[in-house]
Amino acid sequence: MVCHSQEACTLYCPDVNTPAATTPNITSNGVIWYKEGESTPKANYFLSVEEKDHGVYTCTRSYLYCGQIYNMTFTVVLDIQPKGKTVVEAVLDCIEQSRMVLLVPSSPDTGPGSGLLSAIHAALVERQTCLVFIKTEKTEVLRSGSFPEALQILSEAGACVTWKGMRSMPPSSPFWKELRYHLPAPQHASKIRLLPQTSQDVPSWSNV
């Protein structure tokens, strides 16, 4: 199996030809993992897998049947691949190329999402990028409950525009009018037209 570095990874023990759970008089004793070359049992979950974790792992399924213990052993090869660009890096790259950021919160996640929100706030402050925070009904529910601190800071860092469901859908609604008010003016490349110079363009002087 393949996992990417610095990401969570779970090893799964094959269940080929294992006894069915409905088999009478048989009890599963769980699964034990070992890494090849090591004598200490290993966990099958990596919070942040690293290159050193690659290798061959064996998992042993143990069963108790009629007073006897039976083991079934399988081999799993763990391959660690380099990780691509992270979500945070991708978002920050977009912010760096933008004149304004529209933020529409959709989840009360206080885990990895808060780290991303903090990184967004730091990038906005550093680059002095404008922010428009779109408030929704879900946002108001979060405010009345557990509103993540990082999201609270972002909601106060820029302009706020409220989306009111169906009432905000028409292009002429107050939502779109207010949003357009906060959006930066479109940039137009200045057009410079260079005309070829001819003898007719140059005034002639003659001595009288």
TrEMBL record:
Domain of life: Eukaryota
Name of protein: Uncharacterized protein
Species in which this protein is naturally found: Chaenocephalus aceratus (Blackfin icefish)
